[in-house]
């Protein structure tokens, strides 16, 4: 039982390049999330998926797109990377669809640098 | 909107000292409250949670009580260890949106 896995762990991009961050969970959870973590700002929600086939914007969605490929996988795409997207990205999942008491389970993160 | 405020760090303590990390929140309705911990180089993991007023969450010697009257959820531990060195995040789940809202995090460093 691996929990939430993310690839890659590290990535360096040049401004304007594109890339996809991959996330998978093996806990049969319905909801999945993408966050970014910046110094002094905690974690901010980029996009989430309450169930397979649905996605919604979070607090900071500009410059990103997502795909809920199936129940296990939720990818985050940067179409044209900008230095402001330099951050640590975390994927998370939870059992229910936005339940108030749900615990979210986090992956190990992807550290992205955009030059 | 809903928000979480944590005491600024870093907090530096000697081993076996007492720890308190303050957390206050602003929310409509009845949020659930969480403490997550992030060890160096790792993702966040749940430390403890409380889902209603006066509930006490506890785990690994850490405790926090959901205080609705003071809108607080302070994290406490009686005797910290070097292995407790990490970043601690207070968070709430908005009762309106169901989304997790984080404080900015507090870095704890425990010295031998």
Summed up:
The complex is a heterodimer of chains A (115) and B (112). By secondary structure, chain A is mainly beta. Helices cover 0% and strands 49% of the residues of chain A.
Give the tags.
heterodimer; A: 115 residues; mainly beta; seven-stranded mixed beta sheet; four-stranded antiparallel beta sheet; globular; B: 112 residues; six-stranded mixed beta sheet; 51% strand
What report would you give on this structure?
The complex is a heterodimer of chains A (115) and B (112). Helix content of chain A is 0%, strand content 49%. In chain A, the strands form two sheets. In chain A, strands 2, 4, 5, 6, 9, 10 and 11 form a seven-stranded mixed beta sheet that branches. Chain A is built from no helices and eleven strands. In chain A, a hairpin with a 5-residue loop joins β4 and β5 (43-49). Chain A starts with a strand and ends with a strand. Chain B has 112 residues and is mostly beta strands. Chain B contains no helices and twelve strands. The interface between A and B is medium-sized, with 25 and 25 residues.
Topology at a glance:
The complex is a heterodimer of chains A (115) and B (112).
Chain A: E1 4-7, E2 10-13, E3 19-25, E4 31-37, E5 43-49, E6 56-57, E7 64-68, E8 74-78, E9 87-94, E10 105-106, E11 110-114
Parallel strand pairs in A: 2-11
Antiparallel strand pairs in A: 1-3, 3-8, 4-5, 4-9, 5-6, 7-8, 9-10, 9-11
Chain B: E1 3-6, E2 11-14, E3 19-21, E4 23-26, E5 32-38, E6 44-50, E7 56-59, E8 62-65, E9 75-77, E10 86-93, E11 100-102, E12 106-111
Parallel strand pairs in B: 2-12
Antiparallel strand pairs in B: 1-4, 3-9, 5-6, 5-10, 7-8, 8-9, 10-11, 10-12
